[in-house]
Amino acid sequence: MMLAFSTLACPGWSLNQVVEAAHGYGYGGVELRLVDGRLIEGDMPAAERDRVRRTFARAGLPIVAVDSSVRVAAAPSVKDALDQLSPMLELAHVWESPVVRVFGGEWDANRSREDAIRQARQVLIEGAAKAEPLGVSIALETHDRFSSAGLVAEVLEGLPSSAVALWDVGHPYRVGDTPQEVLTQLDGRLAHVHIKDCRRHGEDWQLTLLGEGEVPVRSCVYALRDAGYSGWLSVEWEKKWHPELAEPEVALPQFADLLRSWCADR
Fold first, then answer.
1. What is the pLDDT of residue 202?
2. How far apart (Å, rounded) are the C-alpha atoms in residues 88 and 160?
3. Angle, to 10 degrees, between the axis of helix 113-131 and the axis of helix 149-156?
4. Which residues, in sequence order, are CB contacts of 150 under 8 Å at separation 6+?
5. What DSSP line would sit under 176-216, residue for residue?
6. pTM of the predicted model as reported, rounded to 2 decimal places
7. Are 32 and 63 in contact (CB under 8 A)?
8. Mean pLDDT throughout 66-92?
9. Is the distance from CB of 196 to CB of 166 less than 8 angstroms?
10. Which residues contact 201 (CB under 8 A, 6 or more apart)?
11. 127: burial class by Cβ within 10 Å (0-12, 13-18, 19+)?
C-alpha cells in the first residue's frame, strides 16, 4: 500500500509547498481537493491546469485522486450532476489521475430512498460512459447518507467497472460497520481509501491525530493488507473545514510515521 495526503490538510500552502512536504514526509502521492488553498473547479483555465500538471510531473508525484463536490443522489437532477461531473473527469484525465471522488449526498424529504438510489445509479452509469474513454474511474465515497458500505455497494451493483468505491474509514465506523464488513460489501469495487481518526464529542465527532480517536484504523490497515489491497491510503486531515485542528506540519508526519509502522507490522 502507498501513502498520499489530501490538500485539505494544508489550505495555506502553495503547490510547491505541497510537493516539498510530500517528499519531506515520505508521501508517494497527493490527492487534490485544493490548489493553492482554493477548491478545485471544473472550469479551471487551461494555463492553470497545465501548471498543476507540470508541478507534479517535475516532482515525480502522481495526483492519486481529484476530489469533486458532486452529490450524485442529492443533485436536483441527473443532468445537473453530470454537468458538474464531466469537467472534473476531464481535469483528472489531463492530470493523469485515476479517480474522481463523488458523494452520494443528503437527499431531501421529497425524495425517497429508492429515488435517490435510482438517480445515483443513473448518474454513475452515464458518468462511467464519459469516464472510461478518459481512463478515469468515478469513486463513490462512504460519506453522509451513504456512510454505510452496504448502501454504497447497493448503488454500485451491476454498474460499469469504472464506477467504484472510496472507503473513508471514519464514516462507516460511525454507523456501525466493521472493517471486515466494509471489505466484504465493497469487494471488487474498492479503488481508494481515506484515512482519518475521530472520537465522539457529545452528539458530534471530533477529528483527532492518528491513534488518538476511536476509529480502528490499525485494524482497517491490517484488513486491507490481508485482502490484497495495493492502492493508496490517503490521509484526509480536514484543516480546511476545521481550522482549529493541528497544523499540517504536525499532522502529516504523524500520520505517515504511524501508517508506515502499521503497514510493516506482522
1. 80
2. 19
3. 60
4. 177, 181, 185
5. T--HHHHHHHTTTTEEEEEE-EEEEETTEEEEESTTSSSS-
6. 0.96
7. yes
8. 97
9. no
10. none
11. buried
Q: What's the whole-number mean pLDDT along residues 33-59?
A: 96
- Per the CB < 8 A criterion, the answer to whether 138 and 100 are in contact is yes
Q: Which residues pair with 3 in a beta bridge?
A: 233
251 membership: H or E segment, kind and range: helix 248-264
Return mean pLDDT, the chain: 96
What number of other Cβ atoms are within 10 A of residue 37's Cβ? Answer: 12
- Which one, of 98, 97, 89, 22, lies nearest residue 52 by Cα? 97
Superfamily (CATH H level) for 2-264: Divalent-metal-dependent TIM barrel enzymes (3.20.20.150)
One-letter identity of residue 241:
W
Domain ranges of the chain: 2-264
Q: 200: which strand partners?
A: 205
Question: pLDDT tens digit string along 184-229?
Answer: 999 999 999 999 999 998 878 999 999 999 999 999 999 999 999 9
Task: Return the closest-CA partner of residue 29 out of 117, 120, 96.
Answer: 96
| pLDDT tens digit sequence for 157-173 | 999 999 999 999 999 99
What is the SS3 assignment for 135-146?
A: CCEEEEECCHHH
On whether the CB atoms of residues 66 and 85 are closer than 8 A, the answer is no
